[in-house]
Amino acid sequence: MRNLAALSVLALLTGCATCAGGLAGVEQRNPRGRGFCEATLQVSGDFGFESVGHFKHCFYKDRDFGQCESMSVAPSGSVALWQEASTGSVVAFRPGWDKPQVLLKSFPTPRTLQSATWNELDGTVTIKAWNHLDEQELAIPSSG
């Protein structure tokens, strides 16, 4: 039993190490499963009263998709979605794709994705914006 616990911890740590792969300035890693994760990066620059900025980025293993909000991974781990910080668009990514696919270009203001509820059997995901009552049902992009 002790060996099983040690192997589980090792697998968890190995999975975390691939998130943001050897990037400098990683402050925090938040694994989301199946190689997907969010990581907070420390960036030097002129940010007004501070010379260091702290930005959340979305990753698949060591692949950085840029600043993001609220990554959610489907229960099967086959696809993830998040909101791009630069555009406010909700995007999805499957391992093997060249780039993320835009699912929803415009999002209610304030543009912050609060939640995603997956229904993989029906091929849909229901998303909700922060501080908005309405929800939007989107088709989960196929793997093809």
Describe what you observe in this structure.
The chain has 144 residues and is mostly beta strands. The chain has one domain (2-139). Helix content is 12%, strand content 51%. The chain contains 1 helix and 10 strands, in the order αββββββββββ. It has one helix spanning 2-18, and strands spanning 26-33, 36-47, 50-60, 63-73, 80-84, 90-93, 101-104, 113-119, 124-129, 135-139. A 7-stranded antiparallel sheet has the order 1-2-3-4-5-6-7, with no helix packed on it. A hairpin with a 5-residue loop joins strand 9 (124-129) and strand 10 (135-139). The longest helix has 17 residues, at 2-18. The radius of gyration is 17 Å and the shape is globular. It starts with a helix and ends in a 5-residue tail after the last strand.
Q: What's the number of domains?
A: 1
Helix content: 10-25%
Assign the structural class, choosing from mainly alpha, mainly beta, alpha/beta, alpha+beta, or little secondary structure. Answer: mainly beta
Strand content: over 45%
End-to-end C-alpha gap = 41 Å
Task: Give the helices and strands as they follow along the chain.
Answer: HEEEEEEEEEE
Q: What assembly state would you assign to the polypeptide chains in this entry?
A: single chain
Largest sheet: 7 strands, antiparallel
Strand arrangement across the biggest beta sheet: 1-2-3-4-5-6-7
Number of strands: 10
Uncertain runs are: 3-16
Shape: globular
Evaluate the radius of gyration: 17 Å
What is the typical, i.e. mean, pLDDT?
A: 82
Features:
mainly beta, 51% strand, single chain, 12% helix, 144 residues, three-stranded antiparallel beta sheet, seven-stranded antiparallel beta sheet, globular, disordered N terminus
